[in-house]
């Protein structure tokens, strides 16, 4: 089956998405997500100018060979733009292969390892009481696992706190908006938040928290220790992970489980973290980590060290990534949890999908392929709009910090 055509579709139904569509001489098509939040057009150009010309005429069934060809063939290897572009090709080809087989994608990976995919939702509020109410609302909606983020007294805007809707969207301005940050205020506040949530909710539900790279390793150790009585499922991105060794210091101080990896794009970003058992969950997902083909390699390495998966699933990953990730999740033996931030109605309309939510679980559906399509006519009604994530500056002197 030959690849006859491929094209990039950029649209903004509520937020920006980049989608690659591959066509074959047998009439089968497949799509892959290529969205890199805030840098969307770089991946679109990379695909259009540098990747698509290499695909035409190749055998769509040779997924591994095409993966190696694009990875080694680029010479430069790795990096978010390259790996997102490769992921889009890889996802579209798995979609085509599964459609050709007349099977849902999870069957080609090895079949179901579980009945459904446990997800966590995002509860957030302007203060502790508001966040507690939101957590209870998520519990009432059937979620078994809930991430809690709250506004911090004395800070105007913080990561993870939206405007009270289900659709938190941080890429909110055409140039980065500026937030202020105080580690001291955050560290004083966060244990109180989880104490109050456990008081009201009890211990039946999983609770998660995203530090979003804003602490140093020793501060993260302190927070992890302070959160131990509240039994977190994980503390995420406790410190920036470019230096994988940094996690050793956190581990020395706390038994709160650690998750990291939404910004990783290859196995090399997490090799030491996994081999030294410095983390418990790896958060890489299909779109930014080289597609199903590469994510599977990461998960297999992780399984040797009892590290489980916890795929990233924020709104900037399109329903195409979510669909593919759910097939991966249903199969992967060392599955942990899947993040699930709901997309807007406009987004869902542009990307009709087979996956469904019920009682805190997602199900990828049983249609052939990954089960997500794109309505190109509708997509054309939502042109690209530049949108950036915010930056953080230290409140006391304006130093640029991690957001
Ligand atoms: O979903 C999460 O855990 C995030 O940290 C979301 C990220 O801020 C978002 O995907 C950045 O584009
Ligand atoms: Mg995160």
TrEMBL record:
GO terms for molecular function: magnesium ion binding; mannonate dehydratase activity. Residues 128-257 form the Mandelate racemase/muconate lactonizing enzyme C-terminal domain. This is mannonate dehydratase. It comes from the Bacteria. Transmembrane segments: none annotated. CDD domains: RspA. Its cofactor is Mg(2+). NCBIfam families: ManoateDhtManD (NF043051), PRK15072.1 (NF011654). Its EC number is 4.2.1.8. Keywords: Carbohydrate metabolism, Lyase, Magnesium, Metal-binding. Coiled coil: none annotated. It catalyses: D-mannonate = 2-dehydro-3-deoxy-D-gluconate + H2O.
């Amino acid at each position: 089956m030959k690849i006859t055509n491929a094209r990039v579709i950029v649209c903004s139904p509520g937020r920006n998405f980049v989608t690659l569509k591959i066509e074959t001489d047998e009439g089968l098509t497949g799509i892959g997500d290529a969205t890199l939040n805030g840098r969307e057009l770089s991946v679109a150009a990379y695909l259009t100018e540098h990747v698509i010309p290499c695909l035409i005429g190749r055998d769509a069934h040779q997924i591994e060979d095409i993966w190696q060809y694009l990875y080694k063939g680029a010479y430069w290897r790795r990096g978010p733009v390259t790996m997102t572009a490769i992921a889009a090709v890889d996802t579209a080809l798995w979609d085509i292969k599964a459609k050709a087989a007349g099977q849902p994608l999870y069957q080609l990976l090895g079949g179901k390892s579980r009945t459904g995919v446990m997800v966590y939702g995002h509860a957030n509020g302007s203060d502790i009481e508001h966040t507690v109410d939101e957590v209870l609302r998520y519990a009432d909606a059937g979620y078994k696992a809930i991430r809690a983020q709250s506004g911090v007294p004395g800070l105007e805007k913080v990561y993870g706190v939206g405007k009270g809707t289900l659709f938190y969207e941080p890429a909110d301005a055409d140039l980065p908006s500026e937030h202020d940050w105080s580690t001291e205020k955050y560290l004083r506040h966060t244990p109180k938040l989880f104490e109050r949530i456990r008081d009201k909710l009890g211990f039946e539900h999983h609770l998660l928290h995203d530090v979003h790279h804003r602490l140093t390793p020793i501060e993260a150790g302190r927070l992890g220790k302070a959160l131990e009585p509240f039994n977190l499922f994980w503390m995420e991105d406790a410190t920036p992970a470019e230096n994988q060794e940094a996690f050793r210091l956190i581990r020395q101080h706390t038994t709160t489980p650690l998750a990291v990896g939404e910004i990783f794009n290859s196995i090399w970003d997490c090799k030491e973290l996994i081999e030294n058992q410095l983390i418990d969950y790896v958060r890489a997902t299909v779109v930014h980590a080289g597609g199903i083909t590469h994510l599977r390699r990461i998960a297999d390495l992780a399984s040797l060290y009892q590290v489980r998966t916890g795929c990233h699933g924020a709104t900037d990953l399109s329903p195409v990534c979510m669909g593919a990730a759910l097939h991966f999740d249903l199969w992967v033996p060392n599955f942990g949890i899947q993040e699930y931030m709901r997309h807007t109605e406009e987004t869902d309309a542009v990307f009709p999908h087979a996956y469904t939510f019920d009682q805190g679980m997602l199900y990828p559906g049983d249609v052939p392929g990954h089960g997500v399509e794109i309505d190109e006519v509708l997509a054309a009604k939502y042109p690209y709009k530049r949108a950036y994530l915010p930056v953080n500056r230290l409140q006391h002197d304006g130093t640029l910090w991690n957001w």
